[in-house]
Amino acid sequence: MSATDPSPRSAACLAVLPAGLAPGENVLARLEVDLDAQDRFARRQLLLTDRRLLAGPVDEPVAGWQAWPLDSALQLQHADHAGVGQLSLHDAHARLGCWRYTLGADPAALKLLGAFERQLRRLAAPGDEDLAEPEAEETDFAAESVAPPSTWVLLRLWRFARPYRWPLALGFVLTLASTGASLVAPYLTIPLMDEVLIPYQNGQAIDRGLVWRLLGGLLASALLAWGLGWWRTWLLAIVSERIGADLRTATFDHLLQLSLDYFGSKRTGDLMSRIGSESDRLCVFLSLHALDFATDVLMIGMTAAILFSINPSLALVTLLPLPFIGWMIHLVRDRLRTGFEKIDRVWGEVTSVLADTIPGIRVVKAFAQEKREAERFRRANRHNLEVNDRLNRTWSLFTPTVSLLTEIGLLVVWAFGIWLVSRNEITVGVLTAFIAYIGRFYGRLDSMSRIVSVTQKAAAGAKRIFDILDHVSNVPEPAQPVTLPEVTGALTLQGVGFRYGSRSVIRQLDLEIRPGEMIGLVGHSGSGKSTLVNLICRFYDVTDGAIKLDGVDLRRLRVADYRRHIGLVLQEPFLFFGTVAENIAYGKPDATREEIVAAARAAHAHEFILRLPHGYDSMVGERGQGLSGGERQRISIARALLIDPRLLILDEATSAVDTETEKEIQTALDNLVKGRTTIAIAHRLSTLRQADRLVVMDRGRIVEVGSHDELLARQGAYWRLHEAQLRQAEQAAERSAA
To answer: Less crowded by CB within 10 Å, the N or C end of the chain?
Structure first.
């Protein structure tokens, strides 16, 4: 876009153009930043043209603008730290400008950076067509496109039905046989009317033998249809339950294999809804509605064949409503399909509120937010009600309309049949049999139209489940895994880099950790310590570089094999519902009671466990309810120690305990770290004095490495952290004394 002839697109994307743009100067990219050098809110904008980089106010076209002509010596650098992004402009000698922003503007910043680098290359090689600017992408990051579920997704369930194909085949044969048996009765009404009842009205005697044979045939067909129907229903119900169980198991197994970033973007209630209610819905569909649909199709097909064999012209009249019903089904199918998927998503919102509130009920009550949570649930429930009401308006019109069409069809058959009887083209018995068959025909037709609803519900549920099954983990298993006969615990980090989306968290990090060495990670919040631990545990895979165990890249090891050598104690200890002993033995379920007690003693947990009502068999509430933070932490430490790991990772392991308990745990750790490679994160630097080396991190990089005394002597980053904590401790002591 040029300054002299701005296009409509330029008017939409730019706030105020500087008055000094030259004629024909095209604006390539724009970034609005919202922070100043002191991280206070202040709006400014960056403009990249085909000639210059400009910076100035958002709403002022004249004053306050700066400009730098594009030159090969210029360099635009991008960085982010603790939720703040930064672009800085440099030449060969100094930094020329710096602009800071909250990370919501990071996609636009990266776009401007890419355009800047392309324009510099274009200026350096003006004839190169490969450097042409790509078409701008209009992307709405707030909206996520959701493809409507197709009914064909139900065919993917064959993967789970295949192991039961022979029982399913038997079920189909039973369905065919029971449907055929149920169609015998209307056919027997023809001789019953024409050879028994009508002759009797005309003065002839009743043939009792024929009557008993016909009535016996009616009873036998009814009993046979009942027996075959019961066998078919029981068999297919058993099979569908097993298919549903296999589907739930496969989905949960796959869910456990996904990396942590998947769970970070999903709500617990939504995942619970998918694995629970969606699989139950599919199970009901397979056991009941799919069976009914197959029966309806067979009944309609076989009935139509019988009707045409009796009287083709009357059969054609019977089929008149079919095209109209088919057209209506096609009309409402898409609305139902998208509507039911929306209902599933909204119901996931309702269950998510429950999954958030019930585990956090202590926080809710502590802050007296019962009314707020109740209102949040009411809003979600009201949204669910509104979505259901919109869908029900469509469905409530569709179902009665199908019933009306079938009633009209029955009326037409009666009229046409009476006319045929009056012309002696058919007998009364034939018309009676026709009416009996038509009742079943139209009844099954109406049932099939109702199955449209449950089919679309099942398709929506299947899509949500296959969304999980189709997701590929960002921490894949190696194609040809390497097995380590013995792990010594040597870790090597070479050029490690990692990004959360567009945000760089770890940058070009190199570190050698010797077997049995204790490393302390220190630094400000947001410096990348926990992220580095997550990479070492392979909860995420590095974006750049490699992490090696005993010289082997972690990505070449099976994930489970590698993690068996890791003992992890988290900053927030998590305990499962069960006994104390079961929680300690979680990583080693076959551990003996002696091993469990030994681990508890080493973690200084044995004494308080014995004070519980049932000792090691005392039940621990969900997420450790009923235990103090220090007690939960010591149980989690015992859980890590029981597996005797070669790598011990302590992520703020003593942050949740008091000073006295911390001393007990620290005493135990001093003995336990011997012979193990230990990586410990701690904000209280005093807890890391026994570490062999301290690694100081800042903005995703290692800035210092050394022992406690060495780093204090340098008076660098570690010394500043140490001095800040001393001042905080002194101030806290003064306040407590006052």
So the answer is: C
Which residue from 576, 635, 628, 633 is spatially nearest to 601, judged by alpha carbons? 635
Using CA atoms of 14, 15, 18, 22 in order, give the dihedral in degrees to the nearest 10: 20
11: pLDDT strictly greater than 50: no
CA 638, CA 373: separation in Å to the nearest integer?
Answer: 36
CA distances from 249 to 204, 246, 252 (A): 69, 5, 5
pTM of the model: 0.58
Contact 420, 316 (CB under 8 A): no
Written as one string, the DSSP assignment of 46-72 is EEEESSEEEEEESS-SSTT-EEEE--T
Predicted confidence (pLDDT) at residue 15 exceeds the cutoff of 60: no
Rounded to the nearest 5 degrees, what angle is found at the Cα of 555, between the Cα atoms of 549 and 556?
80
Answer yes or no: is pLDDT of 439 > 80: no
Q: What is the pLDDT of residues 378-418, one digit of tens each?
A: 888 888 888 777 777 776 777 677 777 777 777 787 888 88
Helix axes 208-257, 428-469, angle to 10 degrees: 10
Q: How far is CA 279 from CA 171, 250, 276, 413, 613, in A?
A: 22, 11, 6, 43, 40
| Residues composing the chain | 738
pLDDT top residue among 239 and 675:
239
536, 568 Cβ separation under 8 angstroms: no
The reported pLDDT for the residue numbered 363 is 73
Contact between residue 706 and residue 714 where contact means Cβ atoms under 8 Å apart:
yes
Top-confidence residue, 132 or 696: 696
Q: Which of 106-120, 142-156, 494-508 has the lowest mean pLDDT?
A: 142-156
Contacts of 564 (CB under 8 A, 6+ apart): 643
State the DSSP code for 553. E
Q: At what angle do helices 593-602 and 659-672 cross, to 10 degrees?
A: 120
By the 8 A CB rule, do 631 and 656 touch? no
Instruction: State the pLDDT at residue 510.
Output: 92
Yes or no: say if 166 and 156 are a contact pair by the CB < 8 Å rule: no
Q: Nearest-CA neighbor of 682 among 664, 700, 668, 694?
A: 694
Residues 6 or more apart from 322 whose CB is under 8 A from it?
445
| Dihedral angle over CA of 471, 475, 476, 481, nearest 10 | -160
Residues 360 and 372 sit within 8 Å (Cβ to Cβ): no
Residues 6+ apart with CB under 8 A from 660: none
Phi, psi (deg, nearest 5) at residue 679: -120, 120
For the chain, count helices (H), then strands (E): 25, 19
Q: What is the pLDDT of residues 557-569, one digit of tens each?
A: 888 888 888 888 8
pLDDT digits (tens, 9 = 90+) for 623-662: 666 787 778 878 888 888 888 888 888 877 666 556 666 6
Report DSSP letters for 327-388, one per residue: HHHHHHHHHHHHHHHHHHHHHHHHHHHHHHHTTTHHHHHHTT-HHHHHHHHHHHHHHHHHHH
Show the CA angle centred on residue 561, arms to residues 560 and 564, nearest 5°.
Answer: 80
Burial of residue 589 (CB within 10 Å: 0-12, 13-18, 19+) is exposed
Amino acid 140: pLDDT: 35
CB atoms under 10 Å from CB of 66, counted, come to: 14
Strand partners for 549: 491, 552
pLDDT at 526: 78
